[in-house]
Amino acid sequence: MAVTARAPATIANVGPGFDVFGLAVDGFHDEVRATEIDEGVELRVPDGLPDDPERNTAGLVAFELLERYDLPGVRLELRKGVPVGGLGSSAASAVAAAVAIDRLFDLGLSEAELLRVAAEGERAAAGEPHYDNVAPALLGGFIIWRSEREYRRLSPPRDLRLVTATPTHVRVPTERARRALREDPPGLEDVVNNLSAVALMVHALHEGDAEAFARLMDCDRISEPVRRRFIPGYDRLEEAAREAGALAFTVSGAGPTVVAACLREDARDVASALREVAGDGWIVRVHRPDERGALDRGG
């Protein structure tokens, strides 16, 4: 018997919501097929990815669950669809593995336990768990994260579109991006700016106001001013996106993926503009918010 689960790409921070906001998006997914074996963890992955289960987020999730629940063994086959670098790639693998193993062995894990296990798997790859990626990958929609006991899932506005551009030739390790923030900490005015923006973004979500939500993604003065320096051609990409109708342009997660927020009617023009400026070596994609997540409970 085998069970397959898949988890979507995610955008962490979502502008000013550093380490608090996360948004699941369609278009890119990681898929994990889990099969019961006699013992241990076997891992099959695409070329270029670590095939040692102890060095792969999906494999680490498997070790955690096998030990905790005294399971026999599992073979995981990973189909990688989420580009590496700012779209929650490691979180998608970890979440898909957790859900697939849960269903294979009929463990009946709670939402909280699935979050914890997937986050521990991602810890090994990213140095620490990033719930602003893990939670939306599992639950779908827009996540406000405070702690394992305090988080909320909201539905994004239907007319919101996100256009991402990911360079295939650039890597920005999460730890490097976080270290840069510690070396250039925000001032009090910057913190107040972000706090007011995140409050208004939540209000926009409740109102279903895609335009207000998108514009507020442009209000980050903590992460984006520091991390943009790691992304080649950032200024040219931003200018092109805005001229084509983007309401906001910022860094997705730790980068180097960038994201332009716009309304549905402008998404195609924004994507075309980014493709023209970015050229070869970039993956440009239009996304709708993903309401389903790995649990596939959304609308």
Question: How much of the residues is beta strand, in percent?
Answer: 15-25%
What structural class do the secondary elements suggest?
alpha+beta
Spatial extent as radius of gyration: 19 Å
Q: What kind of assembly state do the chains in view correspond to?
A: single chain
CATH architecture annotation of the largest domain: 2-Layer Sandwich
CATH class of the largest domain: Alpha Beta
Please work out how many helical segments DSSP would assign: 10
Order of helices and strands: EEEHEHHHEEEHHHHHEEHE
How would you characterize the overall build of this protein?
By secondary structure, this protein is of the alpha+beta class. The protein has 2 domains: 2-154, Ribosomal Protein S5, domain 2; 160-287, GHMP kinase, C-terminal domain (Alpha-Beta Plaits, 2-Layer Sandwich), CATH 3.30.70. Helix content is 39%, strand content 24%. It has 10 helices and 10 strands. The protein has helices at 57-69, 89-104, 111-126, 131-139, 174-183, 188-207, 210-216, 224-227, 234-243, 267-278; strands spanning 2-12, 21-36, 40-44, 73-79, 142-145, 151-154, 160-167, 248-251, 258-263, 282-287. The strands form 2 sheets. Strands 1, 2, 3, 4, 5 and 6 form a 6-stranded mixed sheet that branches. A 4-stranded antiparallel sheet has the order 8-9-7-10. A hairpin with an 8-residue loop joins β1 and β2 (21-36). α1 packs across α3 (111-126). The longest helix has 20 residues, at 188-207. The radius of gyration is 19 Å and the shape is globular. The two termini are 29 Å apart. The relative contact order is 0.19.
